[in-house]
Structure prediction request, 306 residues.
Amino acid sequence: MRVPARGRAGGKVILLGEHAVVYGRPAVASGIPLGLTVEVTAGRGPALRADAPFLADDPRLPALLARAAEAVGLDPAEVVGTVESELPPGRGLGSSAALAVATLRACAAAAGRVLGRDDELALGRRLEALFHGTPSGIDPAAAALGGCFRFVCGEPPQVTPLAIARPLPLVVAFGDAPRSTAAAVAGLRARWDAERDAVETLLDATAAVAEAGAAAAVSGDLDALGAAMDENQRLLAALGVSSPEVEALVAEARRAGALGAKLTGGGAGGAVIALARDPEPVAAALRRGGSRALVIAVGAVGEGGS
Ligand code: MEV
Prediction:
């Protein structure tokens, strides 16, 4: 083994189309500048240690390391690792997928291998499934690629990088409480089973909004992109994956001047993104309400990925 070996991967925001993407509709996501790093070395494994409270005792971590090691031909019993993360877990910002891809990259480096993009996407999705059951693969795609892209799930997924006219100024806001993407995905699946036609209609409408928003992002029409985000949020609420906290943050962001605002990721709490020409006053308004709010620019090709 070539150790110590490190792997890094970025978090993500879904700009448009979360949840609908699990049902084959297109979505638009981007890597973000926050990420995490995994370092692996030789030891009695598989053991993966993370200091973040949410992850520290997570029994899935050794299983993740074992599967990543096996995938690149290492013996899991001989590998240990540590995680250093800048990503708040459980907020819909892609921490599970970033962990999966970073672990994979660290193991690949230890095995003296560099994985190609398609392998990273397929293996990243398989490893992410440890954290939530039926992922579309959009989160590991963002972790692996960074930048802004259109995504349709499948084997293999369709991943189309979007050459956006200019970086998108965003506020990312979230509170203290982690929530579960797996639970939100399962809740919508139960609703889809019970009311398939009604849910399908909302998913089709989401697909149209995602396509309109993708075109707006490419042409640099921030007003149209903001309108698409607002409409997507309305549809997400109708799908039952928003929450009172999310609705309050979205309303506050719009009052403070955002062009559009919505939940991002699994929803049911978690992070909200707001698009704004001048993001600082929007972030300040959200902080006054007690949230953490980061100002980031997303979409430059390769950002966040590695
Ligand atoms: C999670 O970031 C996005 C969801 O669409 C689930 C998935 O695509 O795997 C809710």
